[in-house]
Specification:
Belongs to the universal ribosomal protein uS5 family. By secondary structure, the chain is α+β, with helices and mostly antiparallel strands. It has helices spanning 4-14, 16-22, 45-54, 62-65, 68-74, 98-105, 151-164, 205-214, 229-241, 246-253, 257-265, and strands at residues 78-81, 84-87, 107-120, 123-135, 140-148, 167-168, 181-185, 188-194, 201-202, 219-225. Among the domains are: 105-168, Double Stranded RNA Binding Domain, CATH 3.30.160; 181-265, Ribosomal Protein S5, domain 2 (2-Layer Sandwich). The chain is elongated.
């Protein structure tokens, strides 16, 4: 058995106060350069479930992600009924525009398709060039040129430009030109002569397609000089646009339109 002084000493050593007194004291100067590190709290399955249930779902404004035009198309009108909200009768679709229907009825012909190669520092750049003639077969015709790396896209570009540049062509009796024509474009010369009914189109292939799209049925034409399709097309269009009507002749000669028609056309 321990003596009373020894037992007291053991009890005092085992007490918390004594243990605390034995720890080294930390002064403010010693902790001056130490940064506190936060301790991340680990979530238990129970706390995670309660956190998921209590938190509100995050709402995202759809207008930020989807353009306004798309939202208008996606919106469905609703009507309140006794059974609840039901989709209303869909709105009738707008009829197809008259311009789109006219474009489908147009006569289209590809007159020229060329492959060009451009040599650059980085290599060769290949592109396709197309020329298209478009007409309604009733006195309106136009041509356009398109260029693209793909042949189909080049034709579409030329077709769109031809529709945009369509012009009206004057015709005599809605079948031939008003009078004989001759026009030069660079090294190409095109001569056209009016023909009687049933004569047909006896012309260069490119001129033939232009006349078919324009609604000219009887014509005799000859191409002299360069027969480059692009030059032939431009010369033909300029020649058709240079026609003079009875009003133009009457205005230039100082005569009445009736007299000019009787003198020139025998009417």
């Amino acid at each position: 058995m321990f003596a009373r002084p020894a037992l007291a000493a053991l009890q005092s050593a085992a007490s918390p106060a004594a243990a605390t007194s034995r720890l080294p004291t930390v002064t403010a100067a010693a902790t001056r350069g130490i940064r506190a590190i936060p301790i991340k709290r680990q979530l238990t399955p129970t706390s995670m479930w309660s956190r998921r249930v209590d938190s509100k779902p995050e709402t995202i404004d759809p207008s930020v992600l989807v353009p306004p035009r798309v939202l208008e198309r996606m919106a469905i009108p609703f009507s309140k009924t006794a059974d609840g909200p039901l989709p209303a009768t869909p709105l009738p679709r707008a009829p197809a525009s008259a311009d789109a229907a006219k474009q489908r009825r147009l006569k289209k012909t590809v007159l020229s398709m060329r492959r060009t190669v451009k040599v650059t520092k980085g290599g060769k750049v290949v592109s396709m060039s197309a020329m298209v003639v478009v007409g309604d077969g009733n006195g309106t015709v136009g041509y356009g040129e398109g260029k693209d790396a793909d042949a189909a896209r080049a034709v579409k570009k030329a077709e769109a430009l031809a529709i945009k540049n369509m012009i009206a062509i004057d015709r005599y009796d809605e079948r031939t030109v008003l009078h004989d024509l001759a026009h030069d474009f660079k090294a190409t010369r095109v001569e056209m002569r009016a023909a009687p009914p049933g004569f047909g189109l006896r012309t260069n292939p490119n001129v033939h397609e232009i006349c078919r799209c324009a609604g000219i049925q009887d014509l005799s034409a000859k191409v002299m000089g360069s027969r480059n399709p692009i030059n032939v097309v431009k010369a033909t269009f300029q020649a058709l646009q240079s026609q003079k009507t009875a009003d133009d002749l009457a205005r230039g000669r100082g005569m009445r339109v009736h007299d000019v028609r009787k003198l020139v056309y025998g009417q």
